[in-house]
Write a structure and sequence with these properties.
- The protein is an alpha+beta fold.
- The chain folds into three domains: 87 residues, Phosphorylase Kinase, domain 1, CATH 3.30.200.20; 158 residues, Transferase(Phosphotransferase), domain 1 (Orthogonal Bundle); 58 residues, no CATH class.
- The strands form four sheets. It has a five-stranded antiparallel β-sheet. It has a five-stranded antiparallel β-sheet with strand order 10-11-12-13-14, covered by helices on one side.
- Strand 2 and strand 3 form a beta hairpin.
- Helix 4 runs antiparallel to helix 6, helix 6 runs antiparallel to helix 9 and helix 9 runs antiparallel to helix 10.
- The longest helix is centred in the middle third of the chain and has 20 residues.
- It is globular.
- The N and C termini lie far apart (65 Å).
Amino acid sequence: MTGILIDTVGAPQRIKDQLRILSKDIIFTREVSKGANGYLFFGENRILNNEVAVKFYYWGGNAKFHAEPSTLALIEAPNILPVKSAGLLDGEWAYFVTPRLDGDLDDLLERTEHSNLRAVERTRQILSGVVHLHQRRYLHRDLKPSNIYVGDDGRSIIGDFGSIKYMPEDLDSIPASSHALLYRPPESFEADSYGFAGDLYQCGLILYQLLGGYLPYEEMAWLTQKQRREHDKLPSRADQAIFIDSCIKKKIQSGKILDLSTLPAWVPDNLKRTIRKATHVDPAKRFESASAFYTHLNNIKSNIPDWSVIDGFPVLTASVTSYRICGADGGYYVQKSRSGGDWRRDNSIVGVDLEDIVCEIEGKV
């Protein structure tokens, strides 16, 4: 394939043909991923010399549910990855071209502990993008940290539109996406139903993760000791995978996929209540809309203590005096800094555990 510097073995012929056409404008450098739902390629525009990503995705099914790429390309919002061009290949495959962004929220979560307010701000940015999608009756259906890109300015940007679908005016739900089991809302299993509330549920999970909540990607981590023994007795890897999926599915349906007790001690109750509401097993009891969720976070942010983790220490930053919690000999002690000066021990705070210490510090600010 002239002008294409990548191996396209395994890709459908229609995609190979389109890559040949696109290579007139794009120098393709590598294929990033391939799978049941799509193929992602990176390249450089020959004229503009900017890096781009080209995603081919399988949509199939009923055309009325398909997010027409040409329409999707018209959406311009600061928190949505811009679609520069797009098209349908046939009745099964479509593609779109976007700027290339390397970093995503999963990468950031691996190396950064977000402050309370930064976690809220990132979630608000994601919700801002969701508002734009929902206004046009698009459901993303696959909101998760790896599909949220981080711009050069640190902004959260919704990307990966391989699961996006249009919801016709006469419907209040459509079939769910089968991807990312951990992020599927409870209603998506029994009734295979996914509406606007499904995207809000996924935003609630992302907020939980940004605040430090435990949501492991390792599937075996979700099994109890009893379930692990059952798992190990199964005859094949396929049976084991089905068993694990069924265990995770039951946790989601019972509302036990999140454990709020794993959130750091400095995450306030108003944020825990927010997560509970956003991820309620009953979609009717979640926020009414993405804009309502966004507004709620905006309304409570002034009452959220600005705790963050700096150099491994929990720090509450305040205008005059800041506090940080240190550990020693299995216990804790507190230091304070006035107006950015040196840290000095504060012996007036003597809480018996981390929760008590956090409460005492917040009472002083």
